[in-house]
Amino acid sequence: MDHSEPNVALKFWNSSDQEILEKFHLTDEQLSFTLLPKEALKEATDDRNRYPVVITSDEIPVGFFVLHCGRDISEYSPNPEVMLLRSFSIDSPYQGKGVASRAMMLVPAFVEMYFPDIREIVLAVNYRNTVAKKMYLESGFIDTGTTREGKSGPQYLLHYNL
């Protein structure tokens, strides 16, 4: 096994992750596309349909996203058995190391394990965020040509059928 490859895993957020997540750094450009974990966590703690997930690399929290289900995401997909993946981010020092790609490859099995009724994962990616879109497509998400208007401009809606 190549030991230069970090061991990437997903786990539900818990309070012991809070301190590290508070220190996440993203560029201003990245912040135009996503929320810092501490901001996304505030929204998630007020909404029982949002599940914060931590991405670890060699057991260190290095990334974050939120899984969101329920009626208030119907604009993303007509499928009632859909899960929205939102607020995906990787802390700056860990970017460019393949962590995001490996984490995205783990998402479908994670969703199937903890949310067995979900049949589709959807995410929105800004038109200008070409790096993220390429990574999501390489992770098995499909661009069906649907779009929506997001807070920072138009977004592609990418789908993954489970």
Q: Roughly what is the average pLDDT, rounded to an integer? A: 90
Using the CA coordinates, give the radius of gyration: 15 Å
**Which structural class do you get from the secondary structure elements?**
alpha+beta
Total beta strands: 7
Q: Which spans have pLDDT < 50 for at least 5 consecutive residues?
A: none
Count, helices: 5
Strand order of the largest sheet: 1-2-3-4-5-7-6
Order of helices and strands: EHHHEEEHEHEE
* Alpha-carbon distance between the two ends: 29 Å
Percentage of β-strand residues: 25-35%
**Shape by Cα distribution:** globular
Give the biggest sheet.
7 strands, mixed
Helical content class: 25-40%
Characteristics:
35% strand; single chain; 162 residues; seven-stranded mixed β-sheet
Describe this structure in words.
This protein is an alpha+beta fold and 162 residues long. 27% of the residues lie in helices and 35% in strands. A hairpin with a 2-residue loop joins strand 6 and strand 7 (153-161). A seven-stranded mixed beta sheet has the order 1-2-3-4-5-7-6. The protein has five helices and seven strands. It is globular. It has helices spanning 18-22, 28-31, 37-45, 99-114, 130-138, and strands at residues 8-12, 50-57, 60-68, 82-90, 120-126, 142-150, 153-161.
